[in-house]
Amino acid sequence: MVRKTTFPQTKFPQAGFSLIELLIVVAIILIIAAIAIPNLLRAKMAANEASAVQSMHTINTAMITYESSYPTVGYATTLSNLGGLSPCTPSSTTACLIDSVLASGIKSGYTFTAAGAGGPPAVQYYATAVPQAVNQTGIRSFCSFEDAVVRVQPSGAGIPSEAACESLLPLNQ
């Protein structure tokens, strides 16, 4: 005779999460995101500003190099004259001194301009870096001219002239 054993029926708890538990988790994630996203945006703006300052230093160096390489021309008449596509053959129209991204005038949320004036040869230059969207891609704007000192406009507004640039404080003060 075969004896049949029966086990008592047990109820296992229902697998998964309840709707309330899921809503609590989603709420916690949204709170963390609300705290983290503004900090990430500020960090991105700070990185864009640091890139803009470094690009202004690069433009200053390129202008001085250009002026010494092409003394009959003086300073480059446009920002694009400082750049060139790869492979690049140096000339007065494509000096190969800055990368093609910076030479295009837009980099890291900033719009760059540079132009030589006077002459020929051009004995002055003026360069600017202005955020594409103030308080979104950057807070401050920057400028420089033939003294190669980067100056800062705290409001982020455009800097219309070399004279306006001269009235601003240097970046490190």
Question: What labels would you give this structure?
Answer:
173 residues; alpha+beta
Explained architecture:
This protein has 173 residues and is an alpha+beta fold. It has one domain (19-166). Helix content is 35%, strand content 15%. It contains three helices and five strands; from the N terminus they run ααβββββα. The protein has helices at residues 19-69, 100-104, 162-166, and strands at residues 106-107, 110-117, 124-131, 141-145, 151-153. It has a five-stranded antiparallel β-sheet with strand order 1-2-3-4-5.
Q: Which segments are poorly predicted (pLDDT under 50) over 5 or more consecutive residues?
A: none
Helix residue percentage = 25-40%
Q: What is the 3D shape?
A: elongated
Mean pLDDT: 90
How many E-type strands?
Answer: 5
Q: Estimate the strand proportion.
A: 15-25%
Helix segment tally: 3
- Work out the count of structural domains: 1
Provide the structure class.
alpha+beta
Distance between the termini: 100 Å
Order of helices and strands: HHEEEEEH
- Widest beta sheet: strand line-up: 1-2-3-4-5
Please give the radius of gyration in angstroms. Answer: 29 Å
Topology:
Layout (H helix, E strand, L loop, with lengths): L18 H51 L30 H5 L1 E2 L2 E8 L6 E8 L9 E5 L5 E3 L8 H5 L7
Antiparallel strand pairs: 1-2, 2-3, 3-4, 4-5
Short recap of the structure:
The chain has 3 helices and 5 strands, in the order ααβββββα. By secondary structure, the chain is an alpha+beta fold. A 5-stranded antiparallel beta sheet has the order 1-2-3-4-5.
